[in-house]
Amino acid sequence: MRRLQSLQLAIPSQCVAAPRPSFAAARAISTTSPARSKNTDWIRGKLWKGEAPGPADPYTQRMEPEAQTNLPEEALESSSSRSRRDKTPAAVRESRLALPGRRTEVATEKELQASDPTYVPAADAEGLEEIGPLSTWWEQPGHWGEESEFKGFGSAVKVMEKEVLEVYLRRAVVEALALQQKGVFAEWATKKWSEGGSRAEMDQALAAQVEVQDGKATLKGDASAIAEALTSEVEEVESTPVITVEEAREMTKSWDSSWKNVALDNPLRFALRKRLYQLTGVLIPDAKLAAANTAKHILTLAARDPKPLKLAQVLEKRNAFGDLANVKVHERRVGPIDKEVAVGRWKVIEEELKKRDLPVTGYGDAPRNKERDWLTGKI
Amino acid sequence: MTVKALRAIADGKNGLGAFVLQCKKLDLHYCDWAGSSKGMNGFIKSLLPKFAAANPQIEFAVSPRPGKHPVIVGHYINGRTKPICVRNLSPYEILQKVELLRDASGEKLRRTNKAVLSTKPSVRGIWSPYHGKGMAV
């Protein structure tokens, strides 16, 4: 009884708090006839002892009460009209990619025949446009081309050699100084500098002399031309010129090393790091960059030690076992197949496996060894 | 070709005719990355060329085994193998192990408590002049 009481208490209060619109109006389709609901009125009356709360037919669709908002009417209107029109996210709507069309439904044969008495259903697929499935959408021409490929800011080809890095760093320093001299550094520090793909631009920048006194650098050269080349917005297709290590070594030898003592303030540090990333693809981590006070430090942070040689490579380089016939050095791990190859048995095994339709390497479709998992406690 | 013992009807008495080294092959496995292979890598670089030149009758196969401890495996003409793990050993310690493998017979290690080990032990034992009643000549 207590439960029933609480139910009685709860249900009318809900109905009072959120008055619903007429359910009969909200019903799109109903499978219950009105006569049937009339038949149940008497029992509802008995149950509730008077006016019964809730709908007469509880199996109809319920319309949710409209959410209360404090937005002005114009905003409400615009938002509702947009949502009715198109619910796709803004990023998808504004994308320049050709996206697959929305799903549309065609009228059924019966409906068409009702509206158009001359309609004759097709008997074959002649003349129908052939479109691929959705899974091959991006492979279809015009949907994903070279223009859609990601082009990063940094150079795709990473420079690893220290000498070459030094050449590029010198170029970055000269360019930053040139912009400073022209007084446009503050404006251009955060913008994208021209990639400088041509060799002429690079030689122009490297020809300028950098004189450093007590960390203060002055540029002697055609600063305006260098700055002009950087700030011009020319569509470039050339990639960054490739310098050989020998070339770079000669270049670095010809410069006085004092240019590397140029003191860096925060904007210059940031500009050098950005330019170096653009030219060489080497990005100095933020945490390390703060410690760089001179261009020399930047070079130290950017340059990485070359990968140590593998033992097999070292042995080959030294020619350690050159004249010894009884020593064989393998570069890779010697696996079971290598052992069979060494005794000339592998081709026989391979042939026999193929003859029996067995996988030559691996286990094919066979499931993994479950017993091993049982033993090791994985299952 | 590796050295193989001839299948003789009579047992070969090694050392009576010609001496055939029982170790025919040594596999030397190392890892380029792991620290436990440091000594092994040093041994291969510095000591192995000399050792291999001094032992031309043994075949040496040097191969990496990434992510594993360094191992030397000796193969013997009796068909047995003898593997020794040389992790964290210095090059000279490894040299001792390699010499041990070279000099090993390939047989299982057995305790010897007799002065003479014979393949056909005498039923009567070794003759001694101090035992028995003596012999009239």
TrEMBL record, chain A:
The organism's place on the tree of life at top rank: Eukaryota
GO cellular component: mitochondrion; ribonucleoprotein complex; ribosome
Similarity comment: family membership: Belongs to the mitochondrion-specific ribosomal protein mL50 family.
Official protein name in the record: Large ribosomal subunit protein mL50
Cellular location(s): Mitochondrion
Main location: mitochondrion
Compositional bias of kind Basic and acidic residues: 102-111
Keyword NAD: no
InterPro entries: Ribosomal_m50 (IPR018305)
Entry keyword annotation includes Mitochondrion: yes
Swiss-Prot/TrEMBL keywords: Mitochondrion, Ribonucleoprotein, Ribosomal protein
Chain segments carrying region Disordered: 28-111
Automatic annotation (TrEMBL), chain B:
GO cellular component: mitochondrial large ribosomal subunit
Keyword set, alphabetical order: Mitochondrion, Ribonucleoprotein, Ribosomal protein
Higher taxonomy: Eukaryota, Fungi, Dikarya, Ascomycota, Pezizomycotina
Protein's name according to its UniProt entry: Large ribosomal subunit protein mL43
Protein family membership: Belongs to the mitochondrion-specific ribosomal protein mL43 family.
GO molecular function annotation: structural constituent of ribosome
Residue ranges of domain Ribosomal protein/NADH dehydrogenase in the record: 32-105
InterPro entries linked: Ribosomal_mL43 (IPR039927), Ribosomal_mL43/mS25/NADH_DH (IPR007741), Thioredoxin-like_sf (IPR036249)
UniProt-annotated location(s): Mitochondrion
Keyword Mitochondrion: yes
Stored Pfam families: L51_S25_CI-B8
Keyword Nucleotide-binding (UniProt): no
Biological-process GO terms, alphabetical: mitochondrial translation
Gene3D superfamilies cross-referenced by the UniProt entry: Glutaredoxin
